[in-house]
């Protein structure tokens, strides 16, 4: 399904007067509105291929109908999202769920939808068809060198596939760990993992990055081999300049100060990028900003300050991607909501009076510093985000237009009610 630009224009026409009135008021409140709008236009958030279908819980999965049955249909769905918000101009593939057989046609289809290929993701947390060895007891950490070699080769194959598509980064998330005390020698598991990562790192093209994710628990509940940002940092520091830590907002113990983690990694040039989501108990993969919008703002506040201090390009120097699992929502509506929440947090962070905040910090004026941050957070910047979409040719209200056009109903009509997205 391809959206007719005339329908987007008609939708915007009906909302234009109210939008302009809000924009005038917002611009009167935020002096740097034009600069913020341009940064929002440039900012793109990659959509993961696996988030286009209904995820589920440990006890069941309730498909929503019209899910993408192939990589081609996943690209079409991301193209729909990008047409609606013009902020989702890349897709992140998960191999082997999205193994490509015809690179030329896949690249042509992506170009048709104005999409690029973001980081490619390897998978050694599941046993794959025709694989000689099982990852039941780990992959890159495994005590069996043959299993480690198989996992390393899979990652190298993923790099090669990504290079064919124009990607320039590999994301590695490991399920490796142990469920019971005594099951694993921690030191040897670390050494095996490092050795495996070094082999993968050596296969990276010159212009590529390796993003190493971490997770404190699940599927192993006693230990995970890359359990937190410190362990990821330890690995990537040893690997080299092209290796970075990837921060997933759900992969932390309760009450972790994620914004401080982000600041330190950025300061040391070891922050690779993000998997955006939200959580209450653990790796819940909820809609970004649904539970903790102030935390999301504080994270972006540290990002803006730290990236500006290093002279970095906000749009291109880090990897920006959503990681979500939709249990009861329409996945595409959820993704539209997540992109909106991320853009709002970014715009709020851009509006912070940095000079005034620095003065307050240097004078130990705690109240003033809090007021400056909370004033930016409490300022309604939605008109700036909408204006960025409008200038890019997208919809002023993407979710409303998605529903008005009956996109999900159309997809069910094309694909069927009982379809299951590949990889889920």
From TrEMBL:
Record keywords, A-Z: Isomerase, Manganese, Metal-binding
Record-given protein name: Sugar isomerase
Organism the protein comes from: Flavobacterium seoulense
GO terms, molecular function: isomerase activity; metal ion binding
Pfam families: AP_endonuc_2
Lineage: Bacteria, Pseudomonadati, Bacteroidota, Flavobacteriia, Flavobacteriales
Domain of life: Bacteria
Xylose isomerase-like TIM barrel domain boundaries: 102-285
